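User: Can you recover a sequence for this backbone? Please restate the input before giving your answer.

Assistant: Of course. Working from this structure:
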């Protein structure tokens, strides 16, 4: 519990109107979730403006309200804190309310277009193998040690994020590892959060429905590194992919020492003699004049990069190289990332989250290298999202797969048929005389792909990965690619 005046003082330029001694018991940004004694922070969202729900919040027991400067709130029975930016203030209020919990943890943030989830899982595996308790915040779920907490977005809203950090610290976590999305950085969800180590995986086209252009997208990512400063005692570090040209831009803006990793260019952590096989990969890690053999029970060329990033980040956190390599060898497969669906059939079925041009290209190239015969891909693109990548992803699929089935992903408010046609336009440019079709119903598309598969083929179902839902115009339904693939395989095996 804190007094409103002390909470207001935690945000520069805040102006409090009303009783500063009012007790604040919690912080809320959704009027429907307000509890008696809460500070209600008015956030202007994409669809709704929290300032319109102040009366509702007060009726539910809000003890004070935070509003943006210039939005004069009249005749209110509770104190009002005026701030220039309520999104940023939400993070600062929450960090102060919970006692700046990120400073009680060694916090590692991972940002980039692809590879965030796998890299955070690998970092957590290394830390726990070395005897450190770690929390995880990311796309699939949040974790406090072994406790799993459901998640709604890659990076939680600021108040929820600070609450998670507080729980982690109270539960004895020494580290927290989190995916940091460009949306979260742009929307100030990490305001009040102090990172010790920031990791950049890569950058390619994505989220251009939200960002004005690729440069704006890059600026959002770079802000994580320009903010690598604070009051903690821990050494800071920026871990960058030396093979990605955007790392140069980020390095110039980093306020922490830069550590690089890569394959093709000279780097602080470099992989040599790479061997990719269906059951995993190996390579020789070169660092500081020494060499160690790395074994990872997860396949894919892109996972060489993810593991290098994890190794470099953990070394910056104080984990010895040999212990870090040992932790990688114990890593578990990440849900929905090249996840196999195996019922004993004589062809492979893999489910992957690849939903960007670069992600789809990487996973298709990996599967082509590991497949004896044909590669069959089922994929689509989400609605109400970056339309520019639809034909691009179609071109990639047409070029790299032997059979292409375009289907619905999460169409949201858009027509699934029109989205598929846009993707199909790209497929036509590169498919040549290979087979392709549009099957709008995703369930039927998966069954179609499995019915076409022959011995030695690989069926890739891409785009949704771990997700167990599909977002349609009229609501959300349960849908899991892994479940659907299993059912389709059962039906086929019963008929054989």
């Amino acid at each position: 519990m804190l007094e409103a005046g002390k909470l207001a003082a935690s945000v520069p330029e805040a102006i409090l109107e009303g009783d500063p001694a009012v007790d604040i018991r919690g912080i809320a940004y959704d009027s429907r979730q307000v509890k008696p004694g809460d500070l209600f922070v008015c956030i202007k969202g994409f669809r709704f403006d929290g300032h319109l729900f102040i009366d509702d919040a007060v009726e539910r027991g809000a003890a004070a309200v935070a509003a943006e400067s210039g939005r004069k709130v009249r005749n209110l029975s509770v104190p009002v804190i005026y701030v220039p930016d309520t999104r940023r203030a939400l993070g600062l209020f929450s960090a102060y309310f919970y006692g700046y919990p990120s400073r009680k943890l060694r916090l590692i943030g991972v940002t980039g277009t692809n590879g965030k989830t796998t890299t955070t899982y690998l970092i957590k595996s290394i830390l726990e193998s070395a005897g450190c308790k770690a929390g995880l915040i990311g796309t699939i779920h949040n974790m406090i040690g072994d406790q799993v907490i459901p998640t709604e977005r890659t990076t939680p809203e600021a108040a929820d994020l600070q609450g998670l950090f507080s729980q982690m610290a109270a539960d004895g976590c020494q580290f927290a590892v989190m995916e940091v999305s460009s949306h979260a950085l742009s929307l100030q969800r990490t305001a009040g959060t102090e990172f010790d180590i920031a990791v950049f995986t890569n950058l390619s086209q994505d989220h251009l429905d939200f960002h004005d252009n690729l440069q704006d997208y890059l600026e959002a990512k770079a802000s994580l590194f320009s903010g690598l400063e604070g009051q903690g005692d821990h050494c800071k570090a920026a871990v960058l992919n030396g093979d990605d040209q955007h790392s140069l831009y980020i390095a110039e803006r980093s306020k922490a020492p830069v550590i690089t990793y890569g394959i093709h260019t000279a780097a602080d952590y470099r992989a040599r003699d790479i061997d990719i096989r269906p059951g995993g990969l190996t390579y020789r890690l070169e660092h500081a004049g020494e060499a160690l053999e790395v074994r990872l029970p997860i396949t894919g060329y892109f996972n060489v990069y993810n593991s290098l990033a994890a190794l470099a980040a953990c070394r910056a956190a104080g984990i010895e190289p040999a212990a870090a390599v040992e932790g990688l060898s114990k890593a578990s497969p990440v849900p929905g990332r090249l996840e196999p669906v195996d019922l004993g059939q004589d062809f492979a079925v893999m489910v992957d989250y690849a939903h960007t041009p670069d992600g789809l290209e990487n996973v298709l190239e990996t599967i082509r290298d590991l497949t004896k015969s044909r590669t069959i891909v089922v994929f689509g693109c989400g609605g109400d999202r970056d339309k520019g990548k639809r034909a691009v992803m179609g071109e990639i699929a047409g070029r790299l797969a032997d059979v292409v089935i375009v289907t619905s992903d999460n169409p949201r408010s858009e027509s699934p048929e029109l989205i598929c046609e846009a993707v199909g336009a790209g497929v036509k440019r590169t498919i040549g005389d290979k087979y392709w079709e549009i099957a709008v119903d995703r369930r039927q598309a998966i069954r179609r792909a499995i019915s076409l598969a022959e011995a030695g083929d690989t069926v890739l179902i891409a785009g949704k990965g771990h997700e167990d839902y599909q977002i349609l115009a009229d609501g959300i339904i349960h849908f899991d690619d892994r479940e659907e693939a299993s059912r389709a395989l059962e039906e086929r095996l019963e008929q054989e």
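That completes the design. The chain has three domains: 2-97, 101-329, 339-495.
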